[in-house]
């Protein structure tokens, strides 16, 4: 008999309904902040790119990243572009042009000598006919013909002399092509000094070694790393909640504590960015200034990573519960399960701000009441429960 009683008691105990264990938290009052959090980076406010004003051959840049430069200090020196290297065929052509130039000069000089002889003869003939005209031996027409011949031969002489000069310059050009090949040691008389427009620090070297650079080629970037701003690309849906003057907190920047800042510009134009999941997102650049004392973040430099929290809303003495305690009920209403004498009671509440972790409760709940933080489908109104922290 005692055995049967023990078995029956064990069966009753085993099938007796037990309260469901749940996670619970009380509704409390405290400060609540709503922020937009995103990763950003620092950037020098004013960057100056030193570029090549003309095409040339840049000498090796002696500056290194991090070096200080003064305004007007020479950053890069440009030499004239080097001459072409002559291969055997082109060198033979250049020598042939030199020989042709020499022959042209000889021909031009010979024509010049012939023109000079004609001009001298025409001048003497004109003088002789002048004497004959004065003695009335020849007519006026014969004198005019002698004068025209003198002028014509003098013009031919000047033309021949010009041809000699042209032939001499062409010969000089042909000899220059041979004399100033890149295979020879050149003496560059002209070079350009490219100077820094401002005093600052070298931020980037686009080209360190010597070499040919086209006009407009970026060579050195200069800026002042003590004047930094923070750039963050936010989702456009978050950017509309941020405005100039919004307070910003910077965390995980490498130093101790938080840095404070303020939004300076929310750019009016967005851009498309592909997320890590391959989704196209519309992003907006938000630019902020660091307002914390400079000595607190003097180790920060250009392009350093940090996390920015834009303070959208903040209020003290706010009744709040964990956001995970809320669920949808009925016609677009929010509800929670309130623990009353070991039983879950569904209660509709009015909520306000939500920062993703906790939510503001405007009505329907009192301070100190306990709610289930992660209700699932197995919990209904009237379900017996037991908070795990009461075990």
Q: Helical percent range?
A: 25-40%
Q: Topology as H/E string?
A: HEEEEEEEHHEEEEEHEEEEEEEEEE
Number of strands: 22
Strand order of the largest sheet: 3-12-15-14-13-16
Q: Write the CATH homologous superfamily of the largest domain.
A: Efflux pump adaptor protein, beta barrel domain
Output the number of helix runs.
Answer: 4
Question: How many individual domains?
Answer: 4
Instruction: Provide the CATH topology of the largest domain.
Output: Elongation Factor Tu (Ef-tu), domain 3
Under the CATH scheme, the architecture of the largest domain is Beta Barrel
Rg calculated over all Cα atoms: 47 Å
Question: Mind summarizing the main beta sheet?
Answer: 6 strands, antiparallel, barrel
The N- and C-terminal alpha carbons lie at a distance of: 36 Å
CATH class of the largest domain: Mainly Beta
Structural class of the helices, strands and pairings?
A: alpha+beta
Overall mean confidence score, pLDDT: 85
Q: Shape, please?
A: rod-shaped
Strand content: 35-45%
Low-confidence stretches: none
